[in-house]
Structures are given as C-alpha cells and as structure tokens.
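The material for today's practical consists of a large collection of protein records. An example says more than a description, so a record of this kind follows:
***
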Amino acid sequence: MTQKTGAHRKVDSAELALAGERLIAKARQLVGLQEKNLPRLVKAALRAGSTSALKRVPWEAMQLFRDGLFLLIGAYPDRLALPS
C-alpha cells in the first residue's frame, strides 16, 4: 500500500464553502455583475438567447464560477441527496 501525498492538513466544509463563494464573487466582479441586477440580466439573456449572452462573458469568469460552484458542492454534498 502506498502512502497518500498532497494536502498536509484537512480543510473543513466552512473553509471550502468560503473559497467557493470567493471564486464566484470574483467571477461576478470580472463581468461587472451585481446581485441586485441578476433578475434583469437573466431576463435579458433569455430574450437574447443563451449563446449570444455567453459570447459576452470572458472565459476566465466562466472558469472561476465553475470552480467556485464545484467547491460549494464539495462543501455540502449531503444537500444533493434526493429524498427517498
């Protein structure tokens, strides 16, 4: 059996969630997205079509949002369980 290498300390879920939220906030900041404008921007994107709306979003912002979302999902995996 081989010994695992990598992280030397455990990261708790609160730390993981905070890192995810920071990445998502950075992605929003990169595209100038403020929380109060979300409903208006979603409606505009739906009217224009998702592909035209995505063309205006920098790739770096998409990656930051994706990474932040994965960290948040990793922090709270039990919330994804379907009720039986």
